Model the fold of this input.
Amino acid sequence: FLGDLLHSRHAHARETLAAVADWRARRTELDLVLVRGNHDDRAGDPPPDWGVLCVDEPWYLPGAPGLALCHHPDPTAVPDGAYVLAGHLHPCTTVGQGIDRLRLPCFHFGARVGVLPAFGTFTGMHPIARAAGDRVFLVADNAVLELP
Done:
């Protein structure tokens, strides 16, 4: 998880904690790592029974030394020039015009930083500023499509 697993201490409602603990109990084979984000600072680490390894950014995925997993999309935070894969921004892009216009979550990959979308009604969306050479993949229904 690239940060903000739980939004605040209010996310520690008994029903939420129980639902995730139940899900986790059925998926013990998964290795879960949380790269702490700004909301995790307020919410605190997840409960120990979730079995989530909590780390600070940057975190290098074992076997992928050139890939720095971060919450914040800041390439200057990675001293070795690794590619930053981040969350935080909840990128989106707009397609269409007028009443046929849609704002959709997207994956945004630039020269030094890639930002993954967030999903859910609680998260907002941040319009991307696409630079030459960037690759953008929009998410629509059950499809992921690259924009030209």
